[in-house]
Design a protein that fits this description.
The protein is an alpha/beta fold. The chain has helices spanning about 5, 55-60, 80-90, 110-125, 155-165, 175-180, 205, 210-215, 235-240, 290-305, 310-315, 345-355, 380-390, 405-410, 430-435, 470-480, and strands spanning about 25, 35-40, 60-65, 75, 100-105, 130, 135-140, 140-145, 170-175, 190-195, 225-230, 245-250, 255-265, 270-275, 280-285, 325-330, 335-340, 365, 390-395, 420-425, 445-450, 455, 465.
Length: about 475
């Protein structure tokens, strides 16, 4: 593709480089594209791509996009390369986002449940759809691995191209605050943008709750209609501040879409869905008031897209849940093990309250906190667990480059003054084995923090296979071998 064709919609002056043949685009100095590629210099937190521009020319770059004069014959200066790169990637893949109805979901908690259920619902209506999210990416029924919630620009638009070429009509996407702040979504425009809630998380990236809030807010500058949870204080603030048309949903009060007569149980939630025109009974097989909110968001989004709520609810009432979200792990015993992704104080409180609501026995919570992440939430996690469980097992999550025992010490500060009994066990596998082997009749063991993840990240960034379902099975097998 000629450079002038590639950038024709990007308001770029090519000068004498317009007829240059471009074989690919990248911003990654570690990549080895075919000679004739376009390289975009992006300044990151620890590395500035401008410093590698000359070397990339030696490796075959036909053009270099940069923010300052580098003295290269092949350079084109643009104002902001980070903002420019996603637009270039989109153009390289033929702007697939224009061929799809895009739905974006942002918020601290609930994104995966909402996007997964929404995509399943659209597929049930015969609308082939793609999914971009934390657990996995999907193109129709095809499942693809994912490295991060919102992919890097090249990966994102390559994925959207595959969706469009496969005949997808919709792309349902978790849109992370970091992805928004880093402009990864480029020219993506969303038919509907959904906000779930905002609680403390990712402050290691954003620095403050205000910055976190403002990053999420960016979604509502690139969508046709916002669907906002007004049970959340930040949702109410968005409603006052955003300029796009907005609809509201609530599990607590009248809104454009809301719930009445809520019944909470360990096996799920029941309520009456109201939209001012009709009422329908919902029976959603995921527990907790937060899943009333999540299912409301799905119905509200679908109704905003033009689908009948009765048909949406019919599909919701047949769904069995989402992997790693209050997921029951089979044991064949007289106790229950539940795997959940809860890794913020609010999420942990919510899932424990939901489970405790229908518990016959003790609720025992096994949890840890990730390394190289917001350390301020560690004692808050412990306090949330202590206030909503009967027994705690404090262990590791993904320690990364931090000392796991030092992380646990931070966690334990939140248990000062609490009376909830606990043990500490640094090795997570050992901790799960202990929990299973010491389970009593009617206990509910909540494994919090890993959810869908099938790995653990240790020192030096070493990633090992670690699926909690398999670890539970190992512990159960040991019990059986011991005749217990």
């Amino acid at each position: 593709m000629k450079l002038k064709e590639l950038v024709k919609d990007l308001d770029i002056e090519c000068g004498g480089l317009g007829d240059t043949e471009i074989t690919g685009v990248t911003s990654d100095t570690r990549s080895t594209p075919k000679e004739g590629f376009a390289f975009v210099c992006i300044k990151g937190g620890s590395f500035d791509g401008h410093s590698a521009a000359a070397d990339m020319v030696k490796r075959g770059a036909a053009v270099v996009f940069c923010e300052r004069d580098l003295g290269l014959a092949q350079q084109i200066i643009v104002e902001n390369t980070r903002e420019f790169y996603p637009h270039l990637c989109a153009a390289w893949f033929g702007n697939p986002e224009r061929e799809l109805t895009m739905i974006g979901v942002t918020g601290t908690n609930g994104k995966t449940t909402i996007t997964t259920v929404l995509k399943k619902t659209l597929m049930a209506f015969g609308k082939k759809s793609g999914l971009i999210g934390t657990c996995q990416n999907e193109i129709g029924e095809e499942i693809l691995p994912t490295a991060r919630t919102t992919p890097e620009p090249y990966d994102l638009f390559e994925l959207l191209r595959k969706m469009a070429d496969a005949g997808c009509e919709y792309a349902v996407m978790e849109v992370s605050s970091q992805g928004l702040a880093q402009k990864r979504t480029g020219p993506c425009h969303y038919k509907v943008g959904v906000f779930t809630n905002l609680t403390q998380d990712h402050l290691d990236v954003h620095g403050s709750m205000e910055n976190y809030y403002q990053a999420k807010k960016l979604l509502f500058g690139i969508c046709d209609t916002a669907v906002i949870n007004i049970d959340d204080e930040y949702g109410r603030r968005y409603l006052r501040e955003i300029t796009c048309p907005a609809k509201t949903f609530s599990a607590a009060e009248p809104a454009d879409f809301y719930a009445e007569d809520i019944t909470l149980g360990a096996g799920g939630v029941k309520y009456v869905y109201c939209d001012g025109k009709s009422k329908h009974n919902v029976n959603f097989a995921m527990p907790g008031l937060f899943n009333v909110s999540n299912s409301l968001a799905v119905i509200a989004c679908c109704e905003t897209l033009g689908f009948e709520p009765k048909a949406v609810i019919r599909e919701l009432n047949t769904m069995k849940g989402v992997r790693g979200r209050a997921e029951v792990v089979p044991t064949g015993r007289d106790f229950t093990v539940i795997c959940d992704y809860a890794h913020t104080p609010d999420a942990l409180e919510n899932v424990l309250k939901a489970i405790r609501n229908g518990a016959k026995g003790k609720v025992k919570c096994l949890f840890g906190c990730g390394g190289n992440r917001d350390a301020g939430k560690r004692p808050k996690m412990a306090a949330a667990a202590a206030d909503n469980a009967d027994f705690l097992i404090v262990t590791s999550d993904n320690p990364r480059n931090e000392d796991p025992d030092a992380i646990i010490e931070d966690v334990l500060k939140g248990l000062e003054g609490k009376t909830t009994p606990y043990i500490r066990m640094t090795d997570r596998r050992e901790a799960i084995h202990w929990a299973v082997k010491h389970a009593e009749k009617d206990d509910i063991i909540v494994l919090a923090g890993k959810g869908h993840e099938d790995y653990q990240i240790l020192a030096g960034g070493v990633k090992i296979h670690f699926d909690e379902r398999e670890v539970v099975a190992e512990a159960l097998a040991e019990l059986a071998a011991e005749g217990k």
